[in-house]
Amino acid sequence: MDSELIIPTEIPWDIIKGKELEELLYWLxxxxxxxxxxxxxxxxxxxxxxxxxxxxxxxxxxSPDGELTKQKWWIEAKGRKSTVEPAEVHSxxxxxxxxxxxxxxxxxxxxxxSNPTRDWVKEWQSNNPKIKVKLWERTELENLCSKNPLSIxxxxxxxxxxxxxxxxxxxxxxxxxxxxxxxxxxxxWQNRSExxxxxxxxxxxxxxxxxxxxxxxxSWCMFVDNELLIETLSNGLINFLYLIxxxxxxxxxxxxxxxxxxxxxxxxxxxxxxxxxxxxxxxIWNVTDREYPREIQTMILEPIINQLQIELSDVCINDCxxxxxxxxxxxxxxxxxxxxxxxxxxxxxxxxxDVLRIESHTExxxxxxxxxxxxxxxxxxDDEAHHNLKSFIETISDVMDFRSNQHANI
Length: 410
What we know:
The protein is flat. Helix 8 (199-212) crosses helix 12 and helix 10 runs antiparallel to helix 12 (255-271). The chain contains 16 helices and five strands. The longest helix has 24 residues, at 294-317. Strands 1-2-3-4-5 form a five-stranded mixed β-sheet, with helices on both faces. The protein is of the alpha/beta class.
């Protein structure tokens, strides 16, 4: 599964040198389970003294009888445009040859080592059996990064596959209460058939769409099968309080999470039916080791049901002859498009709002700009001059000075 998260050819190996390579190795070893990691940054720039290694860390290896033995590793990073010079490898092994407490040395590069260098290292190894030497070149690093993708996720998001991007959305939502952006949601929706969607991923997608995207255009729960839909609703409700408390700790809004669950229940009614949905909401609390007293069940479900009731009242009362009421939650456009979320929308075109603009060429500008038929208002004009940074800053400064003084005199 992890190998599907990374596109190795998209990792920018040619520019991963110096501290970038050291940072990549730091997070790679962190994900591999290394302990006591020390990044030996001796000063500013690439020439900083590092005492013969860039990273120092430990692994604890289990013996057959279960005892843990500490292994000390030294890591040397050699970022290069071409093959690593043999002298650099010789120097690294010379620095470590008298170190009695070092068990493994890794010399890692974004490029490669020559065959003569590898032969020389084998000979050195035979004369120095106590210290294990590992030469990691680009192919080894690609393989390790594919098995341990979080190091790439942290540093080079463009190297993520579509599945990798979905994994980031899931992780950020559940661990940090962070939601995905609209462009990523659109790209994933366009390639949704290629994705392996888990219940945790589906909840992250729907919450992100509700807050940053458009759940009426990209109704993820209509796309997935009923089994995944039910598991997402069930698993999500069991973890509802965790998600709400996590959002509170992160200083993010709780509303998108609540709205996401109201959406899940709505789609469950559509696809599973009312009796099936009632059964889920009633019996879910009995299939977990944790105890959910009636008061806790009510605490979880009440804000979700209230949200769904408000949305449906806005939609239903909109053309009702019996009840007249101001809209509580939804805008006019949201009311009009609400039931789109119960369908799969194909060939979606992102709508742009039409704006009616009339400009008189005879009235003077209050700000004092010199305007003409050919040279209209700079705030509504869409040409190269408008996008010139100097011109734009001058324009907004003049507008601000005039309008703020005008406001001060009111």
